[in-house]
Write a structure and sequence with these properties.
Elements: E1 6-9, H1 22-26, H2 28-31, H3 33-37, E2 39-40, E3 49-56, E4 75-81, E5 84-93, H4 94-99, H5 101-126, E6 147-149, H6 159-173, E7 180-183, H7 187-193, E8 215-219, E9 222-226, E10 245-250, E11 255-259, E12 263-268, E13 272-274, E14 280-282, H8 283-286, E15 288-301, E16 307-311
Parallel strand pairs: 1-12, 2-11, 6-16, 7-9
Antiparallel strand pairs: 3-4, 5-15, 7-10, 8-9, 10-16, 11-15, 12-15, 13-14
Length: 317
């Protein structure tokens, strides 16, 4: 999937050459589970973007010759999508930046897309920032009133497979389509361990081997995408916590996202920054290179009850 153009400012050629910045962010959409299933819409940086949300299919009916034409009961609502800035500031030792440029680039190539995908998915799913404050989007997936607790159905009655079908039924009974599921990585072992009453696996596999894409499998016959932001417990982030949310599925025509036109990378060895404890650091004095990456994203939803959430027991409880 093509990504937005990237611009750079004050980037030393030996650190992040302009010719290799684009592939870094090309992976951010592959690793975002929400982006893998939701539909993309244009996003304006300096104004709101109007996103049409179909409320119903227009109703056509038979009519006699010269008779009054039937009025459609269908309609289209309009959601306003606003660009919200996502940023990360990375302090790097000058010695690393100048003597191990290849290693630094390799690490950034792995970590930057993950950081952006995590933050976007966390906001779109939970409505929160990575630190637990109110998120940038007024609408979010976990706000749905539809919910199924995994483990409700006994093994004799279909087990976890039946739980997901029950959730699908909640969406379909609300006159929506069930078109896919985003799930936490902790769910995959549960799916693979699920067996029928004779010990045979109910699910063979939920991900295509040899891929690292978020969307790489199916569940109950519909696309499946994995993201650690579903539970909220992130790898290599000790402050994150497991909410117990294990999956969200539903009608993804009711969710739209946008990516801003400009993704910028700026580098400075002169600037200052403030750490988590409020301490002020000088890049010049401490011999650091500061790498600032910024991007713009938007997210809107139609009817939140076009989705259903699947919950489990939070890890560690």
């Amino acid at each position: 999937m093509a990504t937005a153009p990237i611009t750079s400012s004050n980037v030393p050629g030996e650190l992040l050459p302009r010719t290799i910045t684009a592939p870094i962010f090309d992976k951010s959409q592959e690793q975002s589970a929400v982006m893998a299933l939701a539909r993309r819409a244009p996003l304006s940086l300096d104004a709101t973007t109007s996103v049409p949300i179909p409320m119903d299919v227009p109703t056509a009916d038979w009519v006699g010759q010269a008779a009054k034409k039937p009025l459609s009961t269908g309609g289209i609502d309009v959601k306003q999508m606003q660009a919200k800035k996502l940023a990360v500031l990375i302090p790097v030792a000058m010695e690393v930046a100048r003597t191990n440029t290849a290693g630094l680039y390799d690490q950034l190539q792995k970590d930057l897309p993950t950081a952006f995908a995590r933050a976007f998915d966390h906001a779109a799913i939970h409505g929160k920032t990575m630190k637990g404050a109110a998120g940038p989007f007024t609408e979010y997936l976990a706000a749905t009133s539809n919910s199924v607790a995994l483990g409700t159905a006994t093994q004799a009655n279909g087990g976890i497979w039946a739980d997901f079908v029950t959730g699908m039924s909640e969406v379909i009974d609300g006159d929506w389509d069930y078109t896919g599921t985003v799930a936490d990585h902790r769910l995959k072992p549960q799916l693979l361990l699920a067996t029928d009453t004779t010990g045979r696996p109910i699910l063979v596999d939920t991900q295509t081997p040899g891929t690292d894409m978020a969307a790489a499998g199916t569940l109950i016959g519909e696309p499946l995408a994995y993201s650690r932001s579903v539970s909220g417990k992130q790898r290599r982030q000790s402050a994150s916590t497991d909410t117990g949310l294990r999956a969200i599925g539903g009608d993804w025509s009711q969710a739209a996202y946008g990516v801003g036109m400009d993704i910028t990378i700026r580098v400075s060895d002169q600037a200052t920054y403030v750490d988590e404890d409020g301490g002020v650091h000088s890049a010049f004095q401490e011999n650091l290179v500061l790498i600032l990456a910024e991007a713009y994203y938007g997210f809107v939803m139609g009817d939140v009850d076009a989705f259903v959430k699947f919950t489990g027991t939070p890890s560690g409880t």
